[in-house]
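WARN retry 2 of 3 for item q-0093 after timeout on previous attempt; input resubmitted unchanged.
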Amino acid sequence: MSTSVALSVDGMSLSEAMGMSSTPTASTLARVAQVHNPITVSIGDDEKITVPVGAFKVTMPDGEVVYTRKASIRVFAQRQQWQRWDSASETMNKSLMSNSLNGDLKDTTGKFNLGRPSGYIEDFQSLPEATKNLIRSIKRVKVTLGMIILDNPMDYSGNPLQGYEDEIPFVMDIKNTESMKSLDNALSKIMSKKLTPVEHTVALSSAKRELPTGAKYAVLVADLGSKVNFQEQDSATLQDFLNWVEYSNSYVSQKWQENSSSAISASDADLVSSIVEVQEAQ
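OK item q-0093 returned
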């Protein structure tokens, strides 16, 4: 399996992300997520859990789905982003990825921060109910990019899979606060050793938590792995990840431009058109 990081964006080719026409292709980064509902298979009259809560679901670039209970990663880059699921259109709206969520970030809806008020909200309870509901629906996301090694990969039936022994370039959206803190703590420990995250692995596992309703969900548990040497291709891999972020942001900016432009009034549209015509005539 190739471990190179191709410059493509989820659902788009590189040229499309740059605003050029092209046939969309899938991202060449594996997407990692945690399983919050166990996967079961029927065996006669019984059901057997084959993929437990907390396992990691890894969706490969070709669409194949692989599961693993544990994994080891090297983190190359992290960014923060606002995300909000639109159930009507079944679309995940996103803001630009940034080092910080302070300030106003353009988003795919043509707004900023997906409509979330910017800055610190001193008195949340004083806000209108509609605004509170909007804020609750918008998730802070830590986008983590790096290389992952799967521990005993398996399919949904629990059958072992071969061919996934090497590091695989991945992206993971971390939304749970406890999960973010766990990974941040592990990375802080690595940097306290005067090492970069690329020079040390992080061992990923999970822990179960329970909601007041009794429903269970999983959080990420990150522990220090082992120190590793820089690999020959690490510098190029890092640059590829940064380029992936750049072109992903180019797509968000393009959607912001399209949706913000479509919201202007007819008179404003005529004014913009006349300005363009004048500039082209000069």
